[in-house]
Amino acid sequence: MEPDQTAQADHLTILMMVAHPDDIDFGNGGSVATWTGAGHRVVYCLITDGDAGGFDEEVSRTDMATIRRDEQRAAGAILGVDEFHFLGWPDGRLYVTHELRRDLARVIRQVRPDRVVTQSPTRNLRSMYGSHPDHTAAGEAVMCAVYPDARNPFAHPELLDEEGLAAHTVSEVWISHMGEGADHYVDTTDAFERKVDALRAHKSQTAHMEDLSGRMWAWGRSQAKAAEFGKDRLAEGYLVLDTR
């Protein structure tokens, strides 16, 4: 399998576009820490605030949204990220709509990334947790925003006519959580502790988890085995798409 060459590339702008706060940290935290450590600009776009998450029934959904934004900012800081776009779409009710595609295309035109990283638009029948409907909807909507919306000056004309956001073509999209479908891997061994620290910053979601570090190590190790990285290495896998 192909290892990641991002660390040797010229400085890139990498836009992470996912459904919920903590999605990036679970699936891509080691990659993000590796990329920012190499000097790349990483920007987060969170489609929902994760207001349907958490376990404390005494916390209002409005308060939960605020808590989760704050947790995501804290987690991002641990990984070297300080640019965030919070779109505020409703958690648990995410669908691929024209309006969602417009909002995602807006962020792409604002950030003008070289690479977009998002979730799989395809349900994984072997993974219930890996196929959250918000995740698959996010992946599909992001792919629609990458092509054709963000690059077509005549799509969502208000973005250009009213907001002055020129069309932008994303060179590549990385789909995360691909399991056996991955064709590209990031060695995250040296970033593992920062990934776990970022996950712990999401206290409303992870404080109850026993052996969080062990669970993340086991997942990273399984990815590294698939990548044939060798003993005691950790990895995060992707399907890389040329979208030029």
From TrEMBL:
InterPro entries: GlcNAc_PI_deacetylase-related, LmbE-like_dom_sf. Pfam families: PIG-L (PF02585). It comes from the Bacteria. It is an enzyme of class 3 (hydrolase). Transmembrane segments: none annotated. Its EC number is 3.5.1.-. One of its GO terms (molecular function) is hydrolase activity. The keyword Membrane does not apply. The keyword Hydrolase applies. Keywords: Hydrolase, Zinc. PANTHER family: LMBE FAMILY PROTEIN (PTHR12993:SF28), N-ACETYLGLUCOSAMINYL-PHOSPHATIDYLINOSITOL DE-N-ACETYLASE-RELATED (PTHR12993). This is PIG-L deacetylase family protein. It comes from Actinomycetospora rhizophila.
